[in-house]
Amino acid sequence: MRNLFKPWFLLVALLALALTAGIACGDDDDDDDATDAPTASGTGAATETEDTSGEVLTDFGVSDTEIKLGQHIVQSGNLASVYQPVVPTLQAYFAYINAEEGGVCGRDLTLTSEDDTYAPAVAREKAQKLIDQDQIAAFIGNLGTPPNTGSAGYINEQEVPDLFIATGVNAFADASTLPWTVLFNPDYTSEGTILGNYVNDNLAGQTIATLYQNDDFGKSGRDAFVATVEGDVVAEETYESTATDINSQLANLRNADPDILYLYSTPAFTARAYAYMAQNSWQPQVVMSYVNSATTLASLVGGGTEAAQITAGFAAIAGAISNNYILDPVANVDDPAIVEHTRIMETYGGPPVGTLSVYAQSIGETTVETLNIACENGDMTRAGIMAAAESITGFHPTVLLEGIDLTVSDTDHAAIQSLVPVEIQANGTLLALVTAPIEAGD
Description:
Layout: E1 2-3, E2 47-51, E3 54-58, E4 66-73, H1 80-83, H2 86-100, E5 108-115, H3 120-132, E6 138-140, H4 145-157, E7 162-165, E8 181-183, H5 188-202, E9 208-213, H6 216-228, E10 233-239, H7 247-255, E11 260-264, H8 267-279, E12 285-288, H9 294-302, H10 307-317, E13 321-324, H11 336-347, H12 355-376, E14 379-380, H13 382-389, E15 418-424, E16 430-432, E17 438-439
Parallel strand pairs: 3-14, 4-5, 4-6, 6-7, 7-8, 9-10, 9-11, 11-12
Antiparallel strand pairs: 1-16, 2-3, 13-15, 15-16, 15-17
């Protein structure tokens, strides 16, 4: 085992900025068939345009000077502040690409982000607007399981690339049913399997209780874990994402007296579980999803972002087992990738550096890689961009952990398929429990 990270307290002020990268059917009426494909200027059939890369075939959203990208993401309501860094990070990263790298294929990248309020029906509506009115070339980073549940089917019907969506529900990676969608996050099914195998190998014979969110997110992580783990599952409880209290569920789990408490919950509910455990002197071994970033969870459990509160939060969650795949902007502050990320955000009007800004840049980097491939292939039509995404092999965004690489094919649309099991330490570092990332299926 080795410690991949430096102590958090070197930059304790940044901890207030760290946000979790974690994130599971509604349907509107079907509208008219897709309009005739425009030229790069939006007026006719697909054409070839001249640029520094030679002749490139284009249809929607790509002109001689611009590549138009779209995204639906929550920007109002209770979750807006949590995910607020994503859009300005992408805008800043694309501004950097335009200013310092000459754009992609001699064209500037532009991003139109629409507020989906984290609601499936609204996400469907915003997707239609971005396709029909804005005529984007591709979607990138549509965030959240409920919104993607509402929009993915429609986007696929319209044959628009739906790239690097920010959720981990494995169904979105099924290329046979959603051939235009690519999942970015490590899928929750694989994570549940990895955590189950870790328990089998290191905590054998211990009893288990589970608490999980009653949606595709929670069920995916719970089902895979329970199917994998060999210990006795003595109690299980669910909660709704809109719940205001989960003490009754936690009381039922405590009454079962498990050795291990498996939490497939989002940070706010995980923090409530820790509060209940503290109030009742209950100390099971916690195993939880990567959506609970250590810095965010510590601030929630500790009651705020002051140094003393963060310290108390880390003391409370120390010993928890989780997964990781992304560089930590606090613990890895001196890593060249984080140094460069910080420079880009400061230079081009990005948000304060935090976990979600690092996460969003990883999506931006993968988007640029995809568009560069499409340019090299001479085909920046929607179909050409989708083909480029399906050809990504072993790509490493600079802000991901060493050994976490992306590969996509026309039959497998799960981009990230590796995770590193970690144990949270009292000083805020994450102790790697394996010597190399674990791939799904291992």
